[in-house]
């Protein structure tokens, strides 16, 4: 056990509990040594059966628990900044669930704090970069076989939104994935955002303006459109089609199972991200554990997390104004390349 990476997991809700299971039973090279959640019952439940784990209500107490060498942050987005700064203060490498920090000012404070350390400690949980289909699309676009990318058409549907989900979160929680995927796939920065919406679906909770249509312009002249619909009622569907000068490529259709009975054939649709992206989360966390044990930090950086938060914030402004909102990033510190993945 001695040379396994000792991980503290902060937040034991949907994602935290799944990551605890993954660290304990799926990936190799790590063990969960501490779990923190103010709802200690949730932490106890998620940690049940994990050998030698300590459960805390206070995240800082978990960071200071014996054997902690790295941190996985799976608390709600607004709690991430404090947790990241606490991890930096202790020199601990971090895998931080998206969004890095939902507001751009907070995300910039994180980038500045990491830059002052002079070394990367953060990998952000944009797991689509580890999804087999996204990786195939990325490698096809990078190969140049389809020529210059003109447009990405993206669909992002959830069955239902969790309690407390706000209209702003359609962009800064859900569309943050497409923002990161578009930056990564195209190697371009979004420069402006416009948001349009139909009348809200009657499936959406009162006051939630769902679905929406989000359009990004990018630094290389491409357009990225995203249908975000978090109360579709019927399935978890994530698709992306790249339209290029020499052809198009689409991913996201191949995740269903076709069940045939005497009544006919029926295609099953994933109901949530834990099913659709199960392999991607496994690969993401394994890559983090492997790199951390080698003293390296790879994958989406704090800068990528900051850029996504700035673009999302422009998107939230565009939701409110109905106008095209420009995106302005702070100067990129030397620590970060455009894409270290
Ligand atoms: N990558 C993905 O596809 C994906 C999917 C779902 C959620 N997420 C992200 O994971 C994070 C958690 O989301 P979730 O759906 O698991 O939420 P959740 O509400 O199910 O769980 C969050 C847990 O954190 C606890 N918590 C609150 N404040 C805390 C703090 N300061 N320190 C430690 N724990 C705290 C809560 O009590 C709760 O148990 C969010 O950042 C979310 O955006 C990512
Ligand atoms: O936090 C979740 C998560 O990021 C999912 O991957 C996304 O599909 C949801 O829309 C979002 O609410």
TrEMBL record:
Gene3D superfamilies linked to this entry: Dihydrodipicolinate Reductase, domain 2, NAD(P)-binding Rossmann-like Domain
InterPro entries per the UniProt record, alphabetical: Gfo-Idh-MocA_inositol_DH (IPR050424), Gfo/Idh/MocA-like_OxRdtase_C (IPR004104), Gfo/Idh/MocA-like_OxRdtase_N (IPR000683), MI/DCI_dehydrogenase (IPR023794), NAD(P)-bd_dom_sf (IPR036291)
Function in brief: Involved in the oxidation of myo-inositol (MI) to 2-keto-myo-inositol (2KMI or 2-inosose).
Residue ranges of every copy of the Gfo/Idh/MocA-like oxidoreductase N-terminal domain listed in the record: 6-122
Catalytic class of the enzyme: oxidoreductase
Keywords: NAD, Oxidoreductase
Assigned EC number: 1.1.1.18
Reactions performed catalytically: myo-inositol + NAD(+) = scyllo-inosose + NADH + H(+)
Keyword Electron transport assigned: no
Lineage: Bacteria, Bacillati, Actinomycetota, Actinomycetes, Kitasatosporales
Keyword Ribonucleoprotein belongs to the record: no
Pfam families the record matches: GFO_IDH_MocA (PF01408), GFO_IDH_MocA_C (PF02894)
Protein name from the UniProt record: Inositol 2-dehydrogenase
Subunit structure: Homotetramer.
Gene that specifies this protein: iolG
Positions of the Gfo/Idh/MocA-like oxidoreductase C-terminal domain: 138-323
Sequence similarity: Belongs to the Gfo/Idh/MocA family.
